[in-house]
Amino acid sequence: MSTLFPNAQEAYFGPDAEGFYGPYGGRFVPETVMPALIELTAAYKEAREDEAFAAELTDLYVNYVGRETPLYSAKRLAEAVGLGRVLLKREDLCHTGAHKINNTLGQCLLAKRMGKKRVIAETGAGQHGVATATTAALMGLECAVFMGVEDIRRQSLNVYKMRLLGAEVIPVDEGSGTLANAVTAALRHWVERVEDTFYVLGSAVGPHPYPLMVRDFQSVIGNEIIAQLAEKNIGHVDAVCACVGGGSNAIGTFYPFVSAGAQFADTELVGAEAAGKGLDTGETGASLTLGSPGIMHGFYSYLLQDEAGNPLEAYSISAGLDYPGVGPEHAFFKDEGFVRYEPVSDTEALKAFELLTLTEGIIPAIESSHALALLPGLAEKYGPQATVVVTLSGRGDKDIDIVREAGLGGE
Ligand SMILES: Cc1ncc(COP(=O)(O)O)c(C=O)c1O
What we know:
Elements: E1 20-21, E2 24-25, H1 34-48, H2 51-65, E3 71-73, H3 75-81, E4 85-90, H4 100-113, E5 118-123, H5 127-139, E6 142-148, H6 149-154, H7 156-164, E7 168-172, H8 179-192, E8 197-200, H9 210-231, E9 239-244, H10 248-259, E10 268-276, H11 287-290, E11 292-296, E12 299-303, H12 328-336, E13 340-345, H13 346-360, H14 366-372, H15 375-382, E14 387-392, H16 400-405
Parallel strand pairs: 4-14, 5-6, 5-8, 6-7, 9-10, 9-14, 10-13
Antiparallel strand pairs: 1-2, 3-4, 11-12
This protein binds pyridoxal-5'-phosphate.
Residues 98, 124-125, 127-128, 203, 243-250, 320-321, 365, 367-368, 393-394 line the site of pyridoxal-5'-phosphate (PLP).
């Protein structure tokens, strides 16, 4: 049994030994990558059952990241959207400003355990790149981060931070120069340097065992929420929300609720994916709403794809949500009806960004603002007494130029 993840077995079984969640997931990779994935799967299985690994990671979560993060009751926000209680899971208060570090610490500890001296990562918004560069500095690992040229333009502050932290940022100018292209470039590079290099994947995507590892490391979010609800004597929650790019903060939020089984059977889980400029504009990242099952980046899941199965370019105002696919466990949760996934447009996200900023003095990431944008709809559905939890996946400092360009704050 896992020592790290106390809830992680009963009600829902998770992936099978080959990494399939129902029909989704798996390992669809060239033969050259297979040995590395098999080695990684074995190393992770061992680490997952090792109390010393769990203790080291927990110590870093507490003393380095600043966990547990608060479950904050946002009273003025609740009043503004017409809900009884809105509880914000403050992942924006994690060291480096987002949930991404929960995962990079776990994967880099594993890299060290496997004797690797060098890590690589892909990044979209730059948060995963910064978290990986931070963790590499902490653990004395060499670090290179692949980033699309469009994201380099949109997220220049994070690019500079990664360089300050000693990482090499490698620009990727293929395709739209965004996250999907960065993942492709990182995977290609990993094949060439697999002997000494560990690929730290930043979301719950990619070939097995990545979606499982990322889910496990991010499940600290949902496990803490459940414990904090009990501490606050909150017996019933109407809905729990998170934004979905590749799906790591959302799976870390939802999985403990799903695996808790009957206890939360009447709590609705809602994922907000990026509708971008609108579902019918062709400029969208809504892979669960508009996509169909296919293969990309070594796994089978819902994808925005053309008739030949080539991934389409995804678009969102937020660099962390413009991925044309989604983690395979989300695809499974959608089909099973465990989670409802709702598209949220750029405009709705910006409105929610502004509302949280003005009512609570908390500037959220635009990614997280997509989850906040679900609140008015949930108020309509569940009424003015309802309690809703939202995972606030990150802070908005990195997005200031974008919201300024969009005309917020009177500029
Ligand atoms: C703050 C923040 N939230 C959410 C995301 C989306 O990623 P995921 O769906 O893996 O949580 C990102 C990605 O960069 C991010 O930076």
